[in-house]
Each structure stands twice: as structure tokens, then as C-alpha cells.
Hints:
The complex is a heterodimer.
Chain A: H1 3-16, E1 21-37, E2 40-58, E3 61-67, H2 72-86, H3 119-135, E4 139-158, E5 163-179, E6 186-194, H4 202-214, E7 225-231, H5 233-246, H6 249-253, E8 274-277, E9 298-303, E10 306-307, H7 314-320, E11 328-329, E12 338-339, E13 343-346, H8 353-360, E14 363-370, H9 372-375, E15 382-393, E16 396-409, H10 410-415, E17 417-420, E18 425-427, E19 432-435, E20 438-446
Chain B: H1 6-16, E1 23-39, E2 42-60, E3 63-70, H2 74-86, E4 102-103, H3 118-134, E5 139-157, E6 162-180, E7 183-193, H4 206-219, E8 222-223, E9 227-233, H5 240-250, H6 252-256, E10 277-280, E11 301-306, E12 309-310, H7 317-323, E13 331-332, E14 341-342, E15 346-349, H8 356-361, E16 365-378, E17 383-395, E18 398-404, E19 407-411, H9 412-417, E20 419-422, E21 427-435, E22 438-446, E23 449-457
Parallel strand pairs in B: 4-6, 8-18, 9-16, 15-22
Antiparallel strand pairs in B: 1-2, 1-5, 2-3, 5-6, 6-7, 9-23, 10-11, 10-15, 11-12, 13-14, 16-17, 17-18, 17-19, 19-23, 20-23, 21-22
Helix pairs in contact in B: 1-2, 3-4
Amino acid sequence: MNLEAAAGRAVEAALSAGAADAEAWAEQTVSRHVRVYEDAVESLSDAGGRGLGLRAFEDGRSGYAYGTDLGEEGIAALARAARGAAAVVDPDEVGGLPDEFGTSTVEGLHSPALAEWSTERKVELALEVERAARAREGVTQVETVVYSDAEARVAIANSRDFAATYESTQVWAYASAFAGEGANLMTGLGVGLARDPGGLDPVAIGDEAARRALALVGARAPETRHCPVVLDTFVAASFVGFIGGMLSAEAVQRGRSLFAGKEGEEVADPAFALVDDGADGEGPDSSPFDGEGSATRRTPLIENGRLSTFLFDARTARKAGRQTTGNASRGSYRSPPTVGTTNLILQAGDQSLDELVARVGDGLYVTDVAGLHSGVNPVSGTFSVGASGKLIENGELGRPVREMTIASDLVSMLRAVRAVGSEERWVPFGGSVKAAPLLIAEMSVSGS
Amino acid sequence: MTLVPPELASLVLERALRRGGDFAELYAEERTGFGLSVDDRTVERPQSGRELGASVRVVQGDATYFGYVDGLSEDDLLRVADSVAQALRGETGAPESVAAPEPAEGHPIGRRPEQVDAGAKADLLRACDEAARAAGSDVAQVRVGYSEARRRVEVVGSDGRAGSDDRTRVRLGAQVVARRDGRVETGTDTLGGHAGWELFEDDPQQVAESAARKALTLLDARDAPAGRLPVVVGNGFGGVLLHEAVGHGLEADAIQKRASVYAGKLGEQLAEPGVTAYDDGRREGEWGSDGIDDEGTPTRRTTVIEDGRLTSYLYDLLRARKDGVDSTGNGRRESFRHLPIPRMTNTYFAPGEASKEDLIASIDRGLYAVSFGGGQVEPATGDFVFGVSEGYLIENGKVTAPVRGATLVGNGLEALRAVDGIAGDLEIATGFCGKGGQSVPAGVGQPHVRIRELTVGGTG
């Protein structure tokens, strides 16, 4: 059975099992994964996955079941399981399918060029990343080089006669290089994302890993201080991802967001503007419809320093008397939709990194943070995380530093943003984020 | 009942070796599970799943060729075998011997969770919700999740390896938010094991109460101190420090890629005599335990540090083959969709002779780090950072005020050398360990441990 047919069949099966409403989400993926080490293939994977998740609604209750068997019997079992699951939960007066469905047009979501790449050429690309990482003097080891791609097909169908599909491709590569030795071994990561392998720059990825590792050689703890901080693009993306998560209406409605009650209020310096855009053709996490069949769209979240809206799915929108923002997100067919970000876009500014550093004068340039997810209190927003990077001295990058923590709270940090850099790019940190360097007026740096 | 009939398994391995390879392996799995949660006083998100799938790998020299498929039909399996063989360039090989999988010595499941009525699971969650809310009027929000998972796995190798394992795990996790005068804090706790419903028959609400107590305590917390301080690390989840800062560095893939500070240190004295640590996938009913690992090697207890001396790394088959040793039963994978890599099972410090009170009484000014929110380590250097989710000041030999925002910053080798006291109260907690894009259940544990000095990064 093809995906559309399986999704349609699953909806019918749920209705005949007694559900009042139903929705099926089916996926099929083909993926290739190449790992190289010391000029040779370390592992080569070829995978084909498929599965379906079914939501059954009845009397304000919903149940979810998922499985890999898309045959008649498998689907009938899913329908029974979804209905059975619904029986034990409490009714939810705002639950149920969205009231409207739709799709948006996303340019370039699927690149046919991916299919033209043989495995040999993908391996060669990974080897080129490795060579580039090793090419810089001082790199002692290239530990990991991975090339990965996936071609996915998704079909949704529900009992309100909505059915839609999309196809997408994603490729990415990353490298992790070491510089220095023993206790002074430093790691650097290089990454690239695209729709097909032709969109990756293997030399840039390898070289980025090498440069990031080399930049930290000889790092030691800085003195404890309060100072201005420039977060590089990777680190800025991680923070932005964290902030995006707290703008979920679900987190807000359940008392787990420090932004609760702040809609329309000033929450950040005007330099900090944030958008969620699930329909951006370049965004890795784009799709025409979200996890429950609402059209994806562009949603400004923070504009002119003000919090303009939270992210909604149909359920949280109903609860708040609002409209969905197309942010019902699914990790895969194995989980029911829940509110989540799509692609977060931090609006780039017009100053280069060098200009930001010059503007700081004396401070800290952070290129890596460790333990963000354990170090940030998701409710209060206070954080203290391990960091490494470089000192900024007299408007220039100085000696490398590590063994320090940077601390602040997200509320103060957002107000203390002074500028966003101009070098924006998509990175896979904090979800799917288009980020740029971020200048923060003050943070607490705890070193020696 | 086998997932893949032995004749078919044999055919799959033959096809996989069609263009050469040192060995081929078929890994088949049935994954079933159920999850339910209570959040905002509402029982919701019931999820029930069943997945069937298999993977094939062929190893030739240092290269691994791998493929997986959702499904266990003959067509599915032969297609994946052919696609894997396609990538090789050698001459036709044949399996040496293919055996029918023998069931592993599993872990006892008292009461099969899937046979417990879903209503009882909902009731358990409601009871947890109430218990957490009863802990104090400042409790603002409670979320408790229940999950059960069963994995039936079969591993058949062209080298005669064959085993099957039937694994059942259950887990409760609670997150509580407390709020007072604009201050907001969270507390979490979990209870789980390679076990059945019996785990929740005796006072399961304690998980929720404990999470609530942590959140409430933090409301009174002051900013953490900063500087070099002696630290007593709590038992149970405190063992995440050992797991992250030492354990990952002992995994043989990191060792062989010279990506670990522990490379070349076998036999060296890394800690004081009296410090012993294990990785133990055999420990009965424990969260990280299995009957066999995901390559068919029976799980076992491996002494990694004995009286302060580094005695073993943790091996899967490939890395063991490279070093000419036996696998230690640490070849684990998240599912049939993943390649096995060396992973910890349950990693913990052996109990010592001190008491928790002794350890604390010996400190004039220090930190008692009861539990961590998680942490991160750079295995290449052993540098780590941990957020302390529940911590207290130690002043004049006594535990005094709770602190918030503390982080422990240090290095695994240094911290190990600085362990100078171990209590007898061993406890193992349930964690999920992420590595190489794979998440597996891992037990982290220890008795109370004193570390002479560590860098505490605070906000104060």
C-alpha cells in the first residue's frame, strides 16, 4: 500500500472502530550515512524506514498509536490501539482536530539532484571534508567525519476530508577535529546543511572544524569578571533555540515559561528580532503543513523588542482564543503532535564580527558552551554554563580561554543584547536556526 | 518463537556476504511500548506503539556496511542484505556456521506491564500528581510521565553467534514547578528499571514527592558560591559525574581513536587505593541491564577501576577484535536502526566504608551536590561541566543552606585523583545516555563520594 492509501485507510479503520474523528500521519524515508576515518570508509549505512501514527478522537479524548506494519492487519491493530488508548485519559474540552487545514508553498523543499549522487561520490565528499580538516598545521586528529542524507515522503489524512503529501530532501555533513595534545587537546566542529550534496562545501566544513580546534590551543581559565560578551553563531543559535522553546503556548499555558503573560510587552532590546518560519525554502525544518495539517507560515515572535505572539497549535490556540500559527510539530510518526518551533530566524544586523569585537573593546568571545540543557533553568531562565572561546582585548581577539562558566538569566540577557552580527547562516544547533553572532552588554564570567 | 526463522536468517547472511566480508550479522527486533502522562492535572498523551524491523551489517577489515528496514518479511530482509552487499567489492563469502538463537538469561519481570490495565496506570499518575501537590502550597505545576517498553531482539552472526533477549523496562519521571513571590524553581526525579509493574507496587508516589521537595527547597536557595571547594557528591544520580567524566573516556572507540585521556593508561594508578568502579550490565533488574548486549555477547560485570588502578576499557566486538581481546558485552544500540557501538550499561563506584555523615563532617566549607540536571564532557580531555540541580552549602561539617545555579567544572582525571572518601550507600538511578545520535538506557550510580577539591562555578 502506498503512503496516501495507508493514511486514508487508517482514518477509515479508526472511524469504523468507533472514533468520532481521526488523523493519520505516514512517513517513508530513505537515508544514506557515510562515516570516514583516516582516508577510508569506517561505516556506510543504507536505510529504508516507514511507519504510521494514528490519532483517534472521541468525546474530547484522544489516543495515539503508531507502528511499522502498513498492511490491512497492521492498520486495523493501530485503530484498535488508538481507540483503546483514548479510553483512559481525561477529556480535554479544547482538544480535537484543527478547524481549518491547508498547505503553503515551500520552494525547493525537495532536490532531485540528490538522487543523481552515487554512494561513491558521497564517500568522496566525506573524504574531502576529512582532508580539509587535516590540511591545517597543528591539527592532531580528525576524529569524526560524517556525511548524511535523507529523502522523506510524508502523507497526512483526516476524517475532515483533508489529505496532503510532501517530499523533502536534507543533507548534512560535519567534522570534529582535534588540535593540541594530552590535557590540552581541543575539539572543533565544522558543519554544513543543504538540500543536496552539491549544496555542501566540503572544504569549508573540514576547515571550520580545524580552525575552531586550533583557535583554542593553549586556552586557560580567564579571571573572574563581569564583561561584554560576543556569542558566536553556533552559541547564539543554541540560546535562540532555548528561547524559541519557551515561546511555545503549551509551555506558557502550563506555567513552564518565563514569558507567560508577557505578550505585547517589551522583552528584549530592539536589536533582537526573532521569527519562526516553517515555510522558508532554505529552512531545514520547513514543510507545507504542520503535524496536524495546518499550513505553515512566517510568524514574527519578537519585533522591536516586543513579544508579538507565542507559537500555537490548534489545541493551545483554542484554549487561548487565538489562531494556530502552524506549529504543531512531530518528531516522527512515533509521536503525536505537540507545539514546537519550525525554523527560527534571528534577524541579522549590519555589523561584521570584527566590528562587533572592536565595539566591545574588552570582553569575551564565546565559541562553545557546554551543558546548556542542564545549565539553564527552563522556567526561571537563570543559567550558568561552561564555556570556551577567546578574550577580547583592545577591540581584537586575544588569547584563548576555557574552564570558565558564563552566567546570567535569559530575561536580562535579551535586554542586554546590543547588536546582532551580519554573518548569518543556518546551523543545526538549538533545533533548526538561522543565526548570527550576538553582542551582549554584560554577563558574569567565572574563571580562576 | 523466533522473529526470523533460522533458515531465512541463514539465507540473509549468505546474501549479505555475496561480495565478501569478514562476517555478517542479522539483528531483528520487535519493539512495543506504551506511554501516558499527567500534566496540568490532566491525564493525557496515551501512546501505544509496535515496530518490527531488522538490520544487516557486514564487516570487512575496519569498514562496516550497514542497512536497516522497517519490517521483517522475507522480501524486506533480502532487499536489505542485497543493498548492503552491493557496497562491497570482494569475492563471495559464505557463513562459517549459523546457529538458531538461544534465549539469554534475562531479568525477572514480576508483573508484565502490558497486562496491567491502562486505567491503573492513569490512577498511578493521578496519585503522583496529588502527592506532589500535597508536598507544599507553593507547588504550581506537576508533570509525571509513565512509560513501558518491551524489546525482543535476535542476533545471528555468520560466525556462529546467536542469541535472543526479551527486555522489559518501566519508568516514572516527575517534574515539579514551584513558585513563590515571582521566584520559580523546578525539581525532577525518576524511578525505573529493567523490571515490570512490581516496581510501582510499593509507594510509587515518592518519585513525585521527591521532585516536589527539590523544587520547594530551591525556592529558599541562595546563589551558589564560586571557587575551589571540597564537594560531596550525592548517591544515585550523582554517579552521572563518573559516567560522563570517566566512563565515556573508557569506551574503546574513543580509546582507539586517541580521543580519550584514558588511552594508554591501562594499569596506571588513577585514583587512591580503595576506589573501585564497575560497569555492570548483569546487575539484576537494573535500568541499564540486559541479558545479552546488542551483538549477542552475554552482559557481565567489568571492573574498570580496581583499588585506584585502571583495569579495563569497555568493548564491543569490533573494537575488541582490533585490540585482540574479548568483548566486554558493551556493544549496544538504540534500536535495529542503529549500529552497535561501545556503551556503558550501569556504571558505578563500589561502596566504601565511610558514612555520608563522615564525609560531610570532615568539611569546613564546601558544597553538597545531591543531584545534577545533567552535564557535558569533552571525552578527548575529560573536561566536564555539570549543573547542580539540588545542592547545599556545607559549613563547619554540617549541611546548611540550599544553593542554586551551581555548576561543577573540572576534569575527569583530576576529579578521580581527588576522590578521597566513599560511603556505603550505593544507589543506581535511571538515565538516558546519548552518543553518536543514539540514546540508550544507562544506569548511573554511586554511594556518596567526597572530592577533595573542584571548581564550583556559581552565580554569587
